[in-house]
Amino acid sequence: MASMGALYPYGHLLRSTRAGVTFVPRRTLTYTPRRAQADNSNNGNNENPSKPSALSSIRNFFGFGGKPSDAPKPTITRRANAPPKREGSLSADSIFAEDEATPKLIASGRTPGRRPTTEQPAEGEEEEQDVSLETRNRENMQAALDPRPQARTRWERKMVVREIRRRGRLSKTEQVMRTERESLSKSHWFKTSIKKLGPLARQIAGKNIDEAILQMRFSKKKAAKDVLEHLQHAKNVAVVRSGMGLGAAAGDEAQKPISIVSKSGERKTITDPTSIYISQAWVNRGPYGVDYDHRARGQINLLRPPYTSLSVLLKEEHTRIREWQDRENTAQRKRKTHLWTQLPDRKISAQNQYYSW
């Protein structure tokens, strides 16, 4: 009752009991839709409802009064299942058919073969014969397979003579190509001139590929952006196709740093012989484009903007070390040949028939 008195003053309850007027409280948290449905059903069934007393009002307020509802509970109607899927069939002449009349598409089944044809050739036409490769006449195919037999014979003889003369030994160029790696990469056409692209090519020539990429990254030149993208592409091509810049093989001992001297006299210390450097970099002249220069009084000048490309030859530090060793050996051999010098011939003077002593 204390809670009820807090919500509704006791004066209202007393007045309702004295005057015989029913006090209907407002909807509270305990007033649920189910209870409201039960009240509505009771009101509909009783045509002459009796006046409730104060005690019944209190019971209804706390949920002890009222009759259970006879209304049916709501049911959930479910949607009917989807109709079964109907699969289509292939026609008799379909290439995807798997019957015995047509070849199967799986490797484990029957091998594909030509379908039997029931059509008969015409009277004037001859039936085509399936000639296999073994039964073909090679003399009829020599015009396409060997158009110049004499030139082929001379070339074969030349190769045999070359092998016999060298006794199977490789030349220095062949040995270098077998033991060292290189990668040549040419860029697409840049919309710039040779005068603008040439200094960038000379700047990156002879540098390590990573150092050259760093130089182009912070360069203020407009063409440096295109050169940077081409260097990154050339490095990826060299790594994937030629296997360059992969480091020492597993199990090999790490080599000590080697100090070399370049052709220009610059000293350089190499720590990784498999690292990539730019051996050569040059610029290629490309086609000219078409542009228009609009001038005053409706005059238009025809412009020819140039296009150029950049080619880089990438090699490993093995090649730079080998070239330095070759230069050192050549210089040492020249120094040894000049150690002894023959005395010059002098004229014989004071020739006499007698001895001088």
TrEMBL record:
<dbReference type="InterPro" id="IPR036394">
    <property type="entry name" value="Ribosomal_uL22_sf"/>
</dbReference>
<comment type="similarity">
    <text>Belongs to the universal ribosomal protein uL22 family.</text>
</comment>
<keyword id="KW-0689">Ribosomal protein</keyword>
<feature type="compositionally biased region" description="Acidic residues">
    <location>
        <begin position="122"/>
        <end position="131"/>
    </location>
</feature>
<dbReference type="GO" id="GO:0006412">
    <property type="term" value="P:translation"/>
</dbReference>
<keyword id="KW-0687">Ribonucleoprotein</keyword>
<feature type="region of interest" description="Disordered">
    <location>
        <begin position="30"/>
        <end position="146"/>
    </location>
</feature>
<dbReference type="Pfam" id="PF00237">
    <property type="entry name" value="Ribosomal_L22"/>
</dbReference>
<feature type="compositionally biased region" description="Polar residues">
    <location>
        <begin position="49"/>
        <end position="59"/>
    </location>
</feature>
<dbReference type="GO" id="GO:0015934">
    <property type="term" value="C:large ribosomal subunit"/>
</dbReference>
<dbReference type="InterPro" id="IPR001063">
    <property type="entry name" value="Ribosomal_uL22"/>
</dbReference>
<protein>
    <recommendedName>
        <fullName>Ribosomal protein L22</fullName>
    </recommendedName>
</protein>
<dbReference type="GO" id="GO:0003735">
    <property type="term" value="F:structural constituent of ribosome"/>
</dbReference>
<dbReference type="InterPro" id="IPR047867">
    <property type="entry name" value="Ribosomal_uL22_bac/org-type"/>
</dbReference>
